[in-house]
């Protein structure tokens, strides 16, 4: 077959695909009407997960899993935009890793609202100026994002999904490498690239700023002072900087886990993760006793962080992630047992335990 003949066949298939997508859009519109009538959440992570799992399992063609997921991410993004004028708040400005995580989850058809800091992301969702928010919670090299953990303590919002994003940091500048005197970046990124900085720029000044996009902007504006930035390649693209070195993070697999926050949590999917926080009574053995609730019910704990309560010196709040959904029988029993040892227990949410 010659090229023209093959392209004619592709055109016919695209016509069919578009017709099918339009039929899907009509049904999605109906879903939106029902959800609004019944006051249900527009974004349904449990349904998205089930749909993706089913498509990947039934795929017998040439398309790799990654491509099927990327295509359907955008189909469902278009669906979300058709159902409602969805707005997602994230730590801006445009081009930050949080922005990229948000796009990975919600696609390109929904609206985005960059915020200057984490508390404003929480605030926008709480005041219904945004439908959902995206915030980083931990990095595989640098650990917890403590500011996010602290914001959950007084918030009424819930976690409804998680996003895992591989973070590849770069050195970017509009000057030559040998002229660099100052490095700008977000503190988390400095932490992720600590060994590389010590080896390559042991005497450079390190200046912490609120985001990697801001760092790129400053590298541009202060180029004459020897400024460069560390961050993602999108930040370099936005501010027209040259990538002088890529993949400078100390661990190749460097990954950040982000959370989607909204008014409600997510229904069970069969493979879920639950995030809780609690404060224990100040007595010997309290923490051990509290955690034994999970051992008794064979529940795996994947993470524990402690943060100062900020109410009383040397009093702590513990943040724990566990396998299972808060509606699962063993998890709800463990949470009830936990409450006997604590002055406060709060379930932040249960959500699909995706590994990408
Ligand atoms: O099934 C739903 O609840 C929908 O809103 C439809 C749909 C889809 O495109 O399939 C879109 C958005 C939701 O997050 C999940 C699925």
From TrEMBL:
<comment type="pathway">
    <text>Metabolic intermediate biosynthesis; prephenate biosynthesis; prephenate from chorismate: step 1/1.</text>
</comment>
<feature type="domain" description="Prephenate dehydratase">
    <location>
        <begin position="87"/>
        <end position="263"/>
    </location>
</feature>
<dbReference type="InterPro" id="IPR002912">
    <property type="entry name" value="ACT_dom"/>
</dbReference>
<comment type="function">
    <text>Catalyzes the Claisen rearrangement of chorismate to prephenate and the decarboxylation/dehydration of prephenate to phenylpyruvate.</text>
</comment>
<dbReference type="InterPro" id="IPR036263">
    <property type="entry name" value="Chorismate_II_sf"/>
</dbReference>
<dbReference type="Pfam" id="PF01842">
    <property type="entry name" value="ACT"/>
</dbReference>
<dbReference type="InterPro" id="IPR045865">
    <property type="entry name" value="ACT-like_dom_sf"/>
</dbReference>
<keyword id="KW-0511">Multifunctional enzyme</keyword>
<protein>
    <recommendedName>
        <fullName>Bifunctional chorismate mutase/prephenate dehydratase</fullName>
        <ecNumber>4.2.1.51</ecNumber>
        <ecNumber>5.4.99.5</ecNumber>
    </recommendedName>
</protein>
<keyword id="KW-0963">Cytoplasm</keyword>
<dbReference type="Pfam" id="PF00800">
    <property type="entry name" value="PDT"/>
</dbReference>
<keyword id="KW-0413">Isomerase</keyword>
<dbReference type="InterPro" id="IPR008242">
    <property type="entry name" value="Chor_mutase/pphenate_deHydtase"/>
</dbReference>
<feature type="domain" description="Chorismate mutase">
    <location>
        <begin position="1"/>
        <end position="87"/>
    </location>
</feature>
<dbReference type="Pfam" id="PF01817">
    <property type="entry name" value="CM_2"/>
</dbReference>
<dbReference type="InterPro" id="IPR001086">
    <property type="entry name" value="Preph_deHydtase"/>
</dbReference>
<dbReference type="InterPro" id="IPR018528">
    <property type="entry name" value="Preph_deHydtase_CS"/>
</dbReference>
<keyword id="KW-0057">Aromatic amino acid biosynthesis</keyword>
<feature type="domain" description="ACT">
    <location>
        <begin position="275"/>
        <end position="352"/>
    </location>
</feature>
<dbReference type="InterPro" id="IPR010957">
    <property type="entry name" value="G/b/e-P-prot_chorismate_mutase"/>
</dbReference>
<keyword id="KW-0028">Amino-acid biosynthesis</keyword>
<dbReference type="InterPro" id="IPR002701">
    <property type="entry name" value="CM_II_prokaryot"/>
</dbReference>
<dbReference type="InterPro" id="IPR036979">
    <property type="entry name" value="CM_dom_sf"/>
</dbReference>
<dbReference type="GO" id="GO:0004664">
    <property type="term" value="F:prephenate dehydratase activity"/>
</dbReference>
<keyword id="KW-0456">Lyase</keyword>
<comment type="pathway">
    <text>Amino-acid biosynthesis; L-phenylalanine biosynthesis; phenylpyruvate from prephenate: step 1/1.</text>
</comment>
<keyword id="KW-0584">Phenylalanine biosynthesis</keyword>
């Amino acid at each position: 077959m010659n090229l023209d003949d093959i392209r004619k066949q592709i055109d016919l298939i695209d016509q069919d695909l578009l017709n099918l997508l339009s039929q899907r859009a009509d049904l999605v519109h109906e879903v939106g009407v029902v959800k609004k009538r019944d006051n249900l959440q527009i974004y349904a992570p449990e349904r998205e997960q089930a749909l993706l799992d089913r498509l990947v399992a039934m795929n017998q063609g040439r398309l790799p899993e990654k491509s099927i997921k990327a295509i359907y991410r955008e189909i469902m993004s278009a669906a979300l935009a058709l159902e409602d004028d969805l707005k997602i708040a994230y730590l801006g400005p445009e081009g930050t890793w949080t922005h990229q995580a948000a796009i990975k989850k919600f696609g390109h058809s929904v609206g985005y609202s960059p915020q200057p800091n984490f508390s404003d992301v929480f605030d926008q969702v709480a005041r219904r100026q945004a439908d959902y928010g995206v915030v980083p919670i931990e990095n595989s090299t640098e650990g917890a994002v403590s500011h996010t953990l602290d914001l959950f303590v007084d918030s009424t919002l819930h976690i409804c999904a998680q996003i895992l994003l591989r973070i590849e940091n770069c050195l970017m500048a509009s000057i030559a490498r040998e002229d660099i005197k100052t490095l700008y970046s977000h503190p988390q990124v400095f932490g992720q690239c600590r060994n590389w900085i010590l080896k390559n720029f042991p005497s450079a000044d390190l200046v912490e700023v609120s985001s990697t996009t801001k760092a790129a902007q400053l590298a541009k504006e202060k180029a004459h002072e020897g400024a460069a930035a560390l961050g993602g390649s999108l930040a370099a693209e936005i501010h027209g900087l040259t990538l002088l070195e890529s993949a400078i993070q100390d661990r190749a697999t460097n990954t950040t886990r982000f959370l989607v926050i909204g008014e409600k949590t997510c229904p069970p999917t069969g493979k879920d993760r639950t995030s809780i926080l609690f404060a224990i009574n100040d007595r010997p053995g309290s923490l051990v006793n509290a955690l034994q609730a999970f051992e008794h019910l064979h529940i795996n704990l994947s993470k524990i962080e402690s943060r100062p309560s900020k109410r009383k010196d040397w009093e702590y709040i513990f943040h724990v992630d566990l396998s299972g959904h808060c509606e699962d029988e063993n998890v709800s029993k463990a949470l009830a047992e936990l409450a006997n040892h604590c002055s406060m227990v709060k379930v932040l949410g249960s959500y699909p335990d995706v590994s990408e």
